[in-house]
Amino acid sequence: MENSQLQSQPPEPLAAAKFIKVIGRGKDGARSMNREDACLLYGAMLDGRVSDLELGAILLSMRIKGESIAEIAGFLDASEASFAPLSAPVDAQYAPIVIPSYNGARHMANLTPLLAILLARAGAPVLMHGVLTDPGRVTSAEIFAALGMPLATSVEQAEAQFAQQEPVFMAIDVLAPKMARLLAMRRILGVRNSTHTLVKIMQPFRQPALRLSSYTHPEYLEMLSTYFTTAAPVERGDIFLMRGTEGETVANARRPQQIDWLHQGRRSTLVEKQLAADVTPELPAERDADTTAHWIKRVLAGEVAVPEPIAEQLAHCLQVARAVRQRQT
Fold first, then answer.
1. Calpha distance 24→10 (Å, rounded)
2. Could you tell me where the DSSP H helices lie in the chain?
3. Which residue of 4, 25, 146, 192 has the smallest Cβ count within 10 Å?
4. Which domains are delineated in the chain?
5. How many CA atoms lie within 13 A of 307 on its CB side?
6. 294 vs 130, 135, 175, CA distance in Å?
7. What's the rounded mean pLDDT across residues 65-69?
8. Range with the lowest mean pLDDT among 167-171, 238-242, 271-275?
9. Residue 64 in 3-state DSSP?
């Protein structure tokens, strides 16, 4: 009886006022938390130990102030400790490749699923994670469904799909449900919060991985580059950082963007920004899921060429994922 009563007790709340005093004084007056405090606060937010009133104050304060390197590092420490990590096959020739997909398509077809499928076909364990639906956008999950590809509903299912060399899509609600709750606050508050950055840079595997990460605002390029070269644990793997294609981490088939490789505390440029692709590729006529899925099937059948920028991104991903894997042996 006593044990059941202890188990049913709600988690002890965290008094967040002392943190709000630091971050909540506006763009010019606010200060940043250190990594330890940021980890403590974000962990409490994930665990539901912060009241709704304080949570709203924290999310809006961080939205106005912007995240520091130490805060991103602490938030990510708490985030990655909040869910069960995945394991890639031990005999894989490539390190796992992580593809966040949270933006979908608004104006042009979302080709992120094509990149994931091509990587998996080449033998790389591929995890794509994101939202299932987003009003006004076509998500990668919807394209996976149109392709008849199952979405992973558990860690065990995901790992079984890795073993079959199938690309894995996990909804954020399945992969990291505590983060999904904070991500959903956008619907209530009307603006994005730090979780939208964290889901695009987190590393869900036990072993080193290659993360494909994108940014939508230019100021995030330098902030994330500095984080990955000075504060991120190098043993967690490498990162490709690029301006998103409508927010997605796939190369723009029409106008290739710069891709930076962040590794071992260094930053290298793999692909230079270009004005337009050398050859105008054949692309889906519409952006809806069914049309995009049909076009992807034609590419996989060899009827349509892989757009050159995506083929180049694919080659770089495989080369670096193999190198990351070889560091473990």
1. 27
2. 2-8, 17-23, 26-29, 35-46, 52-65, 69-80, 112-121, 140-146, 155-163, 172-175, 177-183, 185-189, 194-198, 219-230, 289-300, 308-327
3. 4
4. 2-80 (1.20.970.10), 97-327 (3.40.1030.10)
5. 25
6. 22, 22, 28
7. 94
8. 271-275
9. helix
Q: What is the DSSP letter of 306?
A: P
In this prediction, residue 3 carries a pLDDT of 54
- What secondary structure does DSSP assign to 178-219, as a single string? HHHHHHTHHHHHSS--HHHHHTTT---BSS-EEEEEEESSTH
Is the C-alpha dihedral spanning 236, 237, 240, 244 positive or negative? negative
Q: Are 195 and 183 in contact (CB under 8 A)?
A: yes
Is 76 strand, coil or helix?
helix
Q: Which of 305, 234, 311, 312 is nearest to 266 (CA)?
A: 234
pLDDT of residue 219: 83
Percent of the chain at pLDDT exceeding 90: 85
Q: Which residues contact 109 (CB under 8 A, 6 or more apart)?
A: 138, 283, 284, 286, 287, 291, 292, 295
Q: Please check whether residue 225 is in contact with residue 241, taking contact to mean a CB–CB distance below 8 angstroms.
A: yes
What is the Cα–Cα distance from 273 to 324, expressed in whole angstroms? 25
pLDDT band, very low/low/confident/very high, at 94 (cuts 50, 70, 90): very high
pTM score of the predicted model: 0.94
